[in-house]
Amino acid sequence: MATQLDYYEILEVTRTASAEEIKKSYRKMAMKFHPDRNPGDDAAEAKFKEINQAYDVLKDEQKRAAYDRFGHAAFEGGGAGPGGFDFNGFGGGGLGDIFEQMFGDMMGRRGGQARSGNDIQTHVEITLEEAFAGVEKDVRVITRVACDTCHGTGSNSGAAGVETCPSCHGAGKVRAQQGFFVVERACPTCHGAGRVVKDPCKACRGEGTVEQERTIKVQIPAGVEDGTRIRLTGEGEAGGNGVPPGDLYVHVSVSEHSIFQRDGANVYCRVPLRMAQAALGTEIEVPVIDGSRTIVKIPAGTQTGAHFRLRGKGFSVLRSSARGDMYIQVTVETPQVLTKRQRELLEEFEKEAGEDIKHSPEHTGFFRRVRDFFEGSE
Ligand SMILES: [Zn+2]
Ligand SMILES: [Zn+2]
């Protein structure tokens, strides 16, 4: 091998770095240059190899001491792998464990290993009132449950008919050399299960699970938001062959309400007012999300768009006894159909309003500005 970089430089640590510091730096760099993250990048692959080579020496107290005294010469000759480094140590040593920790989830899924049954997803729609108070809902799911015939073992001879896979010795995955790297993949004999079934059960064809429709009770908490996902641990598909079940995820959607709109813990309610009510002031009765009613005082001269806050009459706050507020938004409605008498009264009203010089729009606000506008342009 040509010139070799110093192992401490490779791992970007000082010569006095502690074992912990070396490990930390190694993990960071191994993550960065891992071939899975840099597919087809030869430079990253070479760097990754270099990092592992350096770490293999520096993580070991004795090897590190030897390296400190003799440098690379300490590991040359002696029939080891390329560059004096035994690459098979890759799978056999601590690196495998680190891989497990760093990429456990990733590798597990890639290897198709069945560590638990599949998760299942379902959906439930609730009303705004149910979201306010909390509710118990029955959800129906088609799932896999343990087979009755073989008690979930998958074998006619019960648990005795299930053996540890001879190819992978129960690991569910096998290691294969790929160039410099040892890669893991699902065991072809047991398809990742780690077990093989002898004398398979006819009812479940050796799977240990059968499809079944189940009804599951789901507690939906008060204050739940639209789009919330509730997880029920262990209510997913049975794993079969002694593997624990997956989880059930229930997606909650809250349907639109005919009266209320919700925004977090606050509730909005649009209330129409007659013209005269808005002008004279009044009291109106409004509904509350909790099913009660309350009275709101509307002051004289209320305009469209005015809103009134009712403290503590809003939505329940998740996992708390607190409540948000309710806002009443007022719209003043113009009558579209008038009786003869209403028309007479309004005509009289309008006549009176026109003669009211002091409050007339002709003398205040908008219309005065309009007059100024035209006079200014002449
Ligand atoms: Zn069965
Ligand atoms: Zn196997």
Automatic annotation (TrEMBL):
InterPro entries, A to Z: DnaJ, DnaJ_C, DnaJ_domain, DnaJ_domain_CS, HSP40/DnaJ_pept-bd, HSP_DnaJ_Cys-rich_dom, HSP_DnaJ_Cys-rich_dom_sf, J_dom_sf
Binding site for Zn(2+) 1: 147, 150, 201, 204
Binding site for Zn(2+) 2: 165, 168, 187, 190
Subcellular location: Cytoplasm
Classification via Gene3D superfamilies: 6.20.20.10, DnaJ domain (1.10.287.110), Urease metallochaperone UreE, N-terminal domain (2.60.260.20)
Domain J: 6-71
Gene Ontology BP terms: DNA replication; protein refolding; response to heat
Single annotated GO MF: heat shock protein binding
Zinc finger CR-type: from-to: 134-213
Extent of the CXXCXGXG motif repeats: 147-154, 165-172, 187-194, 201-208
PANTHER family named among the record's database cross-references: CHAPERONE PROTEIN DNAJ, DNAJ HOMOLOG 1, MITOCHONDRIAL-RELATED
Protein name (database record): Chaperone protein DnaJ
Organism field: Acetobacter fabarum
